[in-house]
Amino acid sequence: MRRVAEGAATFVLAFSVYLVLTAFTGPVGLWSLEELLGGAVVALLVALAAHRLLWERGGWRLLIPIRWVMFLAYLVGPFFFAMAKANLDVAYRVITGRLAPGIVRFNPGLKTDAGRTLLANSITLTPGTLTLEVDEETGDFYVHWINVRSPDPKPEEVCGSFPKWAKVIAE
Question: What is residue 147's three-state secondary structure?
Fold first, then answer.
């Protein structure tokens, strides 16, 4: 019974997102009948595929509204600032030729898949860094970095405050 309730909640969430994203696209009203049926089918497929990930592995934490507010604050503040700073740094290094590329390993201490995914994507979206792999057992990140200063860096050296924000938002 619990799995049915979780699947139904996932369906409602996916269908609600679909309705918000496609509002006012119908020929006469908000949605056409075909859009509603198509959205229901897609939401059902999403619910079947994702409900275990969402409910059994702690993904439900991301449904808490304050976490969305924190995520938006992260995007507008620290992430945007780090992106701007990294763009200038990469431009400087390319122009001057002062490159020290390499692959580094560090452990940010994240426990959930959502936290690790948020951090990995933040690192990859920042110029000069690329997440190559995340070890599922140990939680170690392998990152290609344009400016390797030490072979065993701390997470703050590679990606600044991103791990702290990932903990606040996703764990």
Answer: strand
Q: Which residues share a beta bridge with 129?
A: 145
pLDDT digits (tens, 9 = 90+) for 104-151: 999 999 988 888 989 999 999 999 999 999 999 999 999 999 999 887
Question: In angstroms, rounded to a whole number, what is the distance separating the alpha carbons of residues 49 and 107?
Answer: 30
Contact 50, 63 (CB under 8 A): no
> Nearest-5° angle of CA 164, CA 166, CA 171?
105
For the full predicted model, state whether its pTM sits above 0.85: no
Strand partners, 105: 142
Is 159 in contact with 127 (CB distance < 8 Å)? no
Q: Structure tokens of 160?
A: 């600044």
Q: Which residues pair with 145 in a beta bridge?
A: 102, 129
Mean pLDDT of the chain: 87
